[in-house]
Design a protein that fits this description.
196 residues, mainly alpha, 71% helix, globular
Length: 196
């Protein structure tokens, strides 16, 4: 069987300077498209985000689940046909619990995350500037503490580079198919049984 990761690495590639420009342009275009769709979906609006936190408006959950399905199916399909490599990040349970908790607290306090905050700023919602100030301050503090964090927090529950299907001993294709069906069922239920 072909190893998609090895096949991608051994394929002929243009020089790094050419690749860098193309990658930057691609990232900008995808970022603009993603921001456009977030704005059109309404997740740059404070009341929509608060509605999600209060479990009254599930627009945000629907958009996130749709993005997961599209991204997961797309990436795993491209990987299967040796078009992309998977870039796995290490699973560090302690750091991820602490980081997720801090992210959740920030989201609950200002009702914006970095992506929706950028969309809100782009549409002229100036209240997000407080969140952006916190984002910049938090990023600076994280960078300053990175050495200490690597020696302490990031070692708590370090599982290395793993994926859920591998941990569950399920073939990736089966996992992706089952998880996609589960998310589509959840999307249908949210659309059918919730009101906006």
């Amino acid at each position: 069987m072909i190893d998609p990761g090895k096949a991608v690495k051994e394929s002929s590639e243009p020089p790094p300077a050419v690749l860098a420009g193309k990658k930057l342009l691609t990232a900008i275009l995808f970022g603009l498209a993603f921001g456009f769709f977030l704005q059109k979906g309404g997740v740059g609006k404070y009341n929509v985000l608060i509605g999600q936190l209060l479990l009254q408006d599930f627009t945000v959950a629907k958009i996130i689940m749709t993005a997961i399905v599209v991204g997961m199916v797309g990436v795993f399909t491209l990987h299967h046909f040796a078009k992309v490599n998977l870039h796995l990040q290490p699973t560090k349970i302690g750091a991820q619990i602490i980081g997720g908790t801090l992210f959740g607290i920030g989201f609950a306090l200002i009702a914006y995350c970095p992506g929706t905050g950028a969309v809100a700023l782009g549409q002229g919602s100036w209240d997000v500037l407080f969140g952006m100030a916190g984002l910049i301050t938090g990023s600076y503090l994280f960078a300053e503490m990175s050495g200490w964090l690597k020696r302490t927090v990031e070692t708590w529950g370090d599982k290395g580079k793993v994926m859920l299907p591998d941990l569950l001993h399920i073939p990736r294709g089966v996992f992706v198919s089952a998880f996609t069906l589960l998310l589509l069922a959840a999307l249908y239920a949210m659309e059918r049984f919730t009101t906006r």
